[in-house]
Amino acid sequence: MSLKIKNHLFTGPFDIESASVRANQDPAVYAVVAKGGEPWNPVFKVLETGDTGEAGLKFTEHPHKASWTETAAGKPGVYLLHFSRKEVSASERAAVLDTIRAALDTTGGVIPMGGL
């Protein structure tokens, strides 16, 4: 399954306990998402967004991991939007992340079924 946020297609969900972006992989913008609601009418709530950076990131070691599991009604998952290291700079990833965060601020972090 994927989530669409500001015309960017994030892949996931990946399990926080095993998800990582290694330093030799292309960096990614991430969204930690809790899925709630009924099976026929799910609600996706973004708990946090960020950038894995050039050094990569193991989500199980993220300093906010405990708050994600406390905040989520169910088990949160990680969605990733990868960017080619050769084609997209860190500042361009940051601009995308700012746009996504601004859009999520208008919905309280909730992503409608059709995407945001």
Secondary structure layout:
Blueprint: E1 2-5, E2 8-15, E3 20-21, E4 28-38, E5 41-51, E6 57-58, H1 65-71, E7 77-82, H2 90-105, E8 110-111
Antiparallel strand pairs: 1-2, 2-7, 3-6, 4-5, 4-7, 5-8
Q: How does this structure look, described?
A:
The relative contact order is 0.28. Helices cover 20% and strands 40% of the residues. The radius of gyration is 14 Å and the shape is globular. Strands 1-2-7-4-5-8 form a 6-stranded antiparallel sheet. It has a two-stranded antiparallel ribbon with strand order 3-6. The chain is α+β, with helices and mostly antiparallel strands. It has one domain. Strand 1 (2-5) and strand 2 (8-15) form a beta hairpin.
Oligomerization state of this entry? single chain
Radius of gyration: 14 Å
Based on secondary structure, the structural category is: alpha+beta
Low-confidence spans: none
Q: SSE order, as H and E?
A: EEEEEEHEHE
Number of strands: 8
Mean pLDDT: 89
Relative strand content: 35-45%
Give the number of domains. 1
First-residue to last-residue Cα separation: 15 Å
Number of helices: 2
Largest sheet: 6 strands, antiparallel
What's the quick description here?
Helices cover about 20% and strands about 40% of the residues. It is an alpha+beta fold.
